Amino acid sequence: MQLSFINCIQFNLIKMKKLFSLLAVGALLFTSCSNEGNGQLVGVQNRQAWYDLDPFGMLYIKMGSYTMGPGDQDVPFAQTTQAKTVSVQAFYMDETEITNNEYRQFVYWVRDSIARRTLGEAGNDNFLVSQDIYGEDITPGPQINWEEKLKYTSPEAREGLNDMYLPENERFYRRKEIDTRKLMFEYYWLDLREAARRSNREQGLTDRSVFLKKDVINVYPDTLAWIHDFTYSFNEPMTNMYFWHPAYDEYPVVGVTWKQARAFCIWRTQLMNSFLVNVEVPMVQDFRLPTESEWEYAARGGLSHSPYPWGGPYIRNQRGCFLANFKPMRGNYTDDGGFHTVRVATYNPNNFGLYEMAGNVAEWTNNAYDESAYNFAHDLNMDYQYEANENDLPALKRKVIRGGSWKDISYYTQVGTRTYEYQDTAKCYIGFRCVMSYLGRGKGMDVSTN
């Protein structure tokens, strides 16, 4: 505290000295017409003010260092983790897993964007504009006009959007339903890692479009995951209702692949930044999936060597109640108060205020899975990545999942346990949550405010 106080005084003295120097020069040159600081180094003036913007539904996680990996014995002798001290910069993280209703906003946005473009290209110019005034699309040509109201029950929409619905021979009891196979989302991102590698090799300027990556993906969750994940198990009711029925709005979304989760993060970034640009406010950092080190740091909630988010080493509280939704005992799924998934924020949060960092659904992270990653990954924001395509070996498509789920035993709910699933698979026990890096060193950590 004493050192911070002295630094604060020194910082303010420096600012005052610069101010007095500038005023003195200004007094001597008061007749000058220059508005460039009278020849002094004053920085670019009239810049937009920036204020911390806490994203809705997210919590601030301060920077810190911790011992990553299990704090107990390697019971199954998996040998996939080891103790490693890592440091993590400040970031925001979703308070809960992404819910069905939150993911449905993404699905509906894709549906509506396809409908508007279809109607616009069919001759209704009200749904398209000559230029992108919202900053949502980087492709050339007319862009979507989101100000124009769209009614799917209008005669124009009924006729013009007929191809978006299931064909007659696929309808069940003649219900006119959207063909979810057509809900394709086209998105882009800059591969900065490839740009860094290329610049080191070529030592020259390269066309930036080389690093602009594009993907097209169907965004609708795989609702059949509830059936194909289990053999001889009656889960048809979950397939029929889980994603779309209001009863499950606040349950975590499942049946989402790693690529779909990444697409959701990119869409969420553009949704936020498009609004900020429109109101002339500086943009925010990208939403993304958490790194493995960020996830474990957040799950621990400041508890250094505890095996669970609530501490440990027990999975029950003093009254004998289970502290997470998992597979207790020898398969008594109801003993913890759940059965399949439960509503988010059902169990108590950890010390950071994050809910269900153990159990309910396992969560995708951004990292590729390698058994020896702890040995070669950096200890600063540890982040081992590999972008696998369809021509790569299956082993390279493995992505780390953390936290365990409603169908896992307690070992997988421990903060230090790591396992994987393939990036193009969708499971009824895997969801995700987003993070965003903090802009700056940390909240309230500027020297001038100490």
Would you spell out the secondary-structure blueprint of this structure?
Elements: H1 2-28, E1 58-61, E2 64-68, E3 84-88, E4 91-94, H2 100-121, E5 128-129, E6 143-144, H3 155-160, E7 184-190, H4 192-202, E8 212-218, H5 225-228, H6 236-241, H7 258-278, E9 287-288, H8 292-300, E10 362-368, H9 373-376, E11 398-402, E12 419-422, E13 430-431, E14 435-437
Parallel strand pairs: 10-13
Antiparallel strand pairs: 1-4, 2-3, 4-14, 5-6, 7-8, 9-14, 10-11, 11-12
Task: Give the DSSP E fraction (strand runs of 2 or more residues).
Answer: 5-15%
Number of domains: 3
What is the topology, as strand order, of the major beta sheet? Answer: 1-4-14-9
The SSE order reads: HEEEEHEEHEHEHHHEHEHEEEE
The counted number of beta strands is: 14
The end-to-end span amounts to 9 Å
**Which regions have little confidence, pLDDT < 50, spanning 5+ residues?**
1-11, 22-32
Summarize the structure.
The chain is α+β, with helices and mostly antiparallel strands and 450 residues long. It contains nine helices and 14 strands. The protein has three domains: 2-47; 59-99 and 219-450, paralog of FGE (formylglycine-generating enzyme) (Alpha-Beta Complex); 100-183, no CATH class.
